[in-house]
Amino acid sequence: MLRIKLDDEKVTGLKRVQRRKKQLMTLRILQILILIAVCGAIWLVIQHITQPKSTKTITVSAPALIMRQAPNSSKAVTTVKKGAQVGYLAQKNGWDKVSYAGKIGWLPSWLLNSDYNETTATNRLAEQTIVIDAGHGGVDSGALANNGAYEKKYTLQMALALQQQLKASHARVIMTRSSDTTVALAARPKLANKRGASLFISFHFDSSPEADTASGFTTYYYHKASKTFAKTLSQSLNSLTLDNRGIEYGNFQVTRDSTMPAVLLEMGYINDYTDYQYISSSTYQQRVAQLVYKGIENYTAN
Description:
single chain, alpha/beta, SH3 type barrels, Aminopeptidase, six-stranded mixed sheet, 7 helices, elongated
């Protein structure tokens, strides 16, 4: 009988220990759940405190735009369609930082009220900021043609022709000059850097020491990062009648000081009789603009 009693007590003790372990386990699980809930609440409070607050809303008029992770053609966050209201947070390089559908991203401000539908676009040319530099200007006449005509006149005509070509692309185009004005060399790349340009193109015309001894056009780059852009434009210009002298490294301030892919195009020798007939022709200027446009389109598509 004593043995049976001891056995019963042993069993009762084991059950008590098991019950205690179960209670402790339940308590531990409850503590973990409470900790998770507290952490979640703290995270929500932090999000509420640190999340950018919007005090202004913008209504998107464009058919469809893609909100990007950064103020450039970066990874897509979401698509914003016509009529959507987004919260304005900040602006950088012509892009608006906005909040929409619980997400934060960037929209190109110059496209907000356009007729651009980014969901059907074949490339991202519309998202680019392109600075076009008409070489020389004002007191700086540039090189002289054999008849005394100034280089500055034709660089401006070619730059304006490219500007016109780019209008249909919805790209943001910035001119270093749009008339016969003096613009310091340093101010040209400075403008491009300040405005967050994607690409920089400077138009010029070559001149040889002796008249009528050189012909053709050349594409110059300075930074290694600009070499691919130079190659793409040079290839696009191959169909011109003038000889393509290829791409070359050139230590020019406008390309050296630019922080984005930048090229300087010498589109013919202004003191060569044959080249000048092309340079001074609106047909040639328009053709160059069309081919440069195509080159930009090919470059941004890749």
